[in-house]
Every structure is written in C-alpha cells, then in structure tokens.
Amino acid sequence: MTTLPPPSAVKLGLVIDLDTCVGCHACVVACKAWNTQSDLGAPLSDQDPYGADPSGTFLNRVHSYEVTPQDRPTQQVHFPKSCLHCDDAPCVTVCPTGASYKRQADGIVLVNEDACIGCGLCAWACPYGAREMDPAAGVMKKCTLCVDRIYNEALPEVDRTPACVRTCPAGARHFGDLGDADSDVSKLVAERGGFDLMPEMGTKPVNKYLPPRPRDADQIDILAPLLAPVASDGKGLIAWLDKALSKLPGGHA
Amino acid sequence: MHPAPSVILFTTFSGLGFGLLFWLGLGQPAPTGWVAFAFFALAYAMAVGGLLASTFHLGHPERAYLAVTQWRTSWLSREAIAAIATLLTGGVFALLRIWDISAAPLGWLVSLGCLATVFTTAMIYTQMRTVPRWRHWTTPALFLALSLAGGAILANRGSAALVLLALAAVLQLVAWITGDMRLQQSGTTLGTATGLGDIGRVRAFLPPHSGSNYLLREFVYVVGRRHALQLRAIGLILAFGVPIPLIAAGLGHITALVAVLAHIAGVLCLRWLFFAQAEHVVGLYYGKR
C-alpha cells in the first residue's frame, strides 16, 4: 500500500560523518557485492562492464565536493549518498502498483520487485537520486538498509549491520535507531549538529549527515619537513657512484 | 528529463484522442451511422494507441494491471482508472450514437471523464517537487488547453478551436517565461543538496563514477537545451501559427489536413521540449542542471 504509515517509533537509518569519510568507495563496492549475491531481489547488473562505455546499477555512490569558506582554505568533502529512508517518502506515494512501501515497524523503505512495473516514477519523485532502474531486471532497485543482514541471526552479531557500515575502514558510517533519542546515533547527531539533505523538499529524511569540522586557517604541516628529499649531495661511495654513473652514455650530470 | 519517445507519443496522442472524445461526448458534432463510427474510431485509435505507447517504457508491462490499485495516493494510478472508465463509458456511448440512439447525459459523463483523464495525466508531472519547472498550475492548464484545442480541430469546431489554440499559445508562453526561472526560485542548490552551503561555496569536484548511469541518462538530459529557442519557435509556429489562420479562413479538406498535421507536429515538438528542458534537482549533485 502506497499510503504512508503513521511515523514509526523505530526509525532505522544511517548517520554519515563527512568529516571522517576518506572517499575510498569501499562502501560502494560492499553494497554492490552484498546486494548482488543477496536473494532478497534481482542482482545489481552491469552493462558493457569491460567495454568502452561501462555502466551499472548502484545503491550507494560517493561524490566529492570542494567547499570554500569565506575566511578559510578550501576543503574537500567526500559525500556518500544512498536512500535516506524518508519519513515523508515521495517515492512511495507516487507508486501506482503498491510495489514501493515504507515499513511501519522500522521505517525502512523497500520495493516489492514482484509488483514493480518499472515505470520509473518513484525515481522521478526522489530528489536524492537514491533509486536506480536496473536495465537487466526491469525493476527499481534501492537501498534496503541491508534488511537481510540487520535481522539475520545466521550472521555473527558484529555483521548484523548494513554492508556499507560494516566495511567502512574510516568509521564514517553509523547505523542505528534515529527514532530513539538515547541511541548512539541520535546522540552523535545532537552532538555534532547532524543535518538533513534538501530539507526544503519536505521529505523528512531519517538519515543524517555530520558536517566536516572547520580546518585551521594557518595550518602548519608538521609532517612536511620529514618528507623533504634527503642526501641531495652524498659523500663517499654514493658520491663516487653518482659521478661515475653520470659519466656513462645517457647519464645525467 | 529524458524525452522518452513513448511518453511524448502517449501524452500527445492520448491528449488528442481524449480531446476529440470530449467534443463527441458534448454532441459537437453529433454524427450517427458510419460517420459516427469514423469519428469514434479516430478518437479511440489515438487515445488507446497513446496509452499503449506509454507501456513501451515499462520494465514489466505484463504487470500493468496492478497500476489501478493505488488511487489513494498515486496520480498515475488515478490516470489509469480515469482512462479505463472513460474509454468503457465512451464505448457504450459510441455504440448508441452509431445506432442513432440519443444518450446525451452519458455523453456529458464521457466528456467529464476525458477532462479527468487529461488532468490526471498532467498531475503526474505537476506533482513532482523534484522538477520545479513542472510544479505549477500552467502544466495541467496547458495539457487541458492543448487537448481540447486539438480535439476541436479534429471535431471541426472552428470557433472553439480558434479560442482554445490562442489560449494554449498564451499558456505556453506563460509556462516558458515563468518556468525558465523556477529552478532558481525554488531555492534548491548544490548547497542545500549537500547541506554544505552553510560552510561556504560548494563545487562538484569529482563525480562518483567515470561513466554514465541511470540518473544521468534519465534526469540530466542536456542535448535539447542548446537549440531550445529555435525549437520553441518551430513548435509555436506549427502548433498555433499554421492552424490559426487556416481555421480562421475556413477549412476545406486539404487545409484541414494541413492544419491537423501541423498542429500534431507542433505539439510533439512542444512536448519534447516539456521533457528535454525540465531540470531535475538530482542533477545538482553532479554539478549539472
């Protein structure tokens, strides 16, 4: 049913720390891998993967932006983006078949692929580009918050978290209940001033982003001196070798 | 937005078909026998042909019957129901008219159904907050005006066609003039999209992928914008500039054909621009619009 349920008490979602993300794309790969082997839905296909014009279906993508504050140096921000599991999800209400739905129990937005006609309207309604039509399966794919991991008792407890969170080497991704003000993720959001993407769209996203911390204006790089080239003019054997090799044909003075 | 041929054909021809059915429902004209058969057959060929074309872009057209289930929230679902209900009642009305049985109230119901169908089609686009250009009263107004104008030409309602064509031309100009500024006025920028706008000026530095993807193909269609001005002029001339003087001078068989063909070509052009010029906010994430 595409009528949105009343706001759920439990709001499972992600908190993404833009200060910590290093832009390695490991979450992108882990997401693609898990959701391609998962029997929850159709695999995430690739088109022309080894050819001249490769493209494929991904549920998570990492952009990189440059932010220039008024009075401080420019900083680079890596920006992972996936479904935000919005409370007021426009992708759900536009669906003509009832394939898109938001779960009452935990707020996860899912697609019933058996009912999806592949009209693409939900992707049109999403301002975040979180949904991608899979050209091979002809159905809409989106982040499931790894619903087949987080409740999966066949997995060790440490793995009962979305694949992107489990794999992040920087600890930039956090998973938890954002409906519970006392949860670790909610405290993190309160402490760091977590924000919504495009709040003006009225989607009320569950996922939150933590802002990058400001860089110092007069940043002194303490490691730079250690990286300077050493032994620019060697002594003894090295100096002789340098001279001898330079005299060989093709050698540099 | 990607101007998919199936959707352009669908909105153009089903709009014309339902427009013609609207006038037939009102009894303007009120033919009987074979003439009625020809008129209704033309309306149904365009309306049903357009609807069939729209299923070509579906990933799973065999499940299209599910699309009538979510009328509580989905404009696409409402459109499917309105189209089916109108075509069914219109079919009964057509049979009655062919056998010269008067059924005026049923015809009015068919006309109302035609208006509802075209309106729900337009609302599929108008509801999109993500496409500020479409989210405006001019979208349903223009869809309705073009549908009724095209229907009036096909139904040979000269004076009604003239008024509606002029109205549609004005609405089209209003839609363009206001629409060109609407993304900017919406306040959605790369700054709000990333939430980094409060820190400073944001610039897209590296895309998330080296190749293209579904999002760029579907939502960031920039090819058409280069010749937008020329295409707007061509669309206006064909859709309105050619038919209006021909109709005003009184239509013969040949000039009627020219007026109809020019109008259809013009509306196809305008509908192509409707999609190709529409900017989806997801393009902002890629530093595009």
UniProtKB/TrEMBL annotation, chain A:
It comes from the Bacteria. Keywords: 4Fe-4S, Iron, Iron-sulfur, Metal-binding. CDD domains: PsrB. GO terms for molecular function: 4 iron, 4 sulfur cluster binding; metal ion binding. Pfam families: Fer4_11, Fer4_2. Residues 12-39, 73-105, 107-136 form the 4Fe-4S ferredoxin-type domain. This is Fe-S-cluster-containing dehydrogenase component. It comes from Loktanella salsilacus.
UniProtKB/TrEMBL annotation, chain B:
GO terms for cellular component: dimethyl sulfoxide reductase complex; plasma membrane. GO terms for biological process: anaerobic electron transport chain. The chain crosses the membrane at residues 7-26, 32-59, 80-99, 105-125, 137-155, 161-179, 229-248, 254-274. Coiled coil: none annotated. The keyword Transmembrane applies. It holds the Pfam family DmsC. InterPro entries: DmsC (IPR007059). Keywords: Membrane, Transmembrane, Transmembrane helix. The keyword NAD does not apply. It comes from the Bacteria. GO terms for molecular function: dimethyl sulfoxide reductase activity. This is DMSO reductase anchor subunit. It comes from Loktanella salsilacus.
